[in-house]
Amino acid sequence: WSELTRKLELKIEVQELNDAGEYVGVEVQPRLDVGSGGIFQLRQGQQRRIVASVDPIANSGTLPIICESITSIAVGSPCVRSKLQKPLDSYQDDDLNALRSKWNDALSRRRDYLGNQIQKYMKKNVKTDVETEREQSLVAQWVCLTEERNSVMVPAPNSGVPGAPADWEPPDGTEVHVPVLFLDLNADDLSTGK
What phi, psi does 25 have (nearest 5°)? Predict the structure, then answer.
């Protein structure tokens, strides 16, 4: 996966104008019962701005992706939520589900191919040593494929497989979930086809 992935760190800071006329970052109160990076402690009536940056994380994969600029940021309105409601976070499964679907389709095609090849060898009454070896190789590939399919749907923690749960203590202000952004690129020209 290291050749196909790259981790990016998105940093967001809400800044308010202080009494000296300078923008300073607002306090973020970390809370275990909140799915986001914490609760921004905003003061009423203050002028605010948002500072955002996206940086690649060192040694997180070799996919050559660089964020040159952030073109826009959309902000919803602050809201009050009951502790009984599901906490808000920015984690979305859309791209992860798209990746799993494409991966599952590719694995299904490979499984069908291996199944057909195995059936051809199983129907033969007399097999040469080469054919017996090939049949065993195909069965071994089929078993590996089954294990890979299981790891697609339920990846082990910290396995590096997209969607694997992260077993880590995030720093204050950081969300626990690590979302997946799936770039469905054409292999020839690395375009999205859109």
Answer: -65, 140
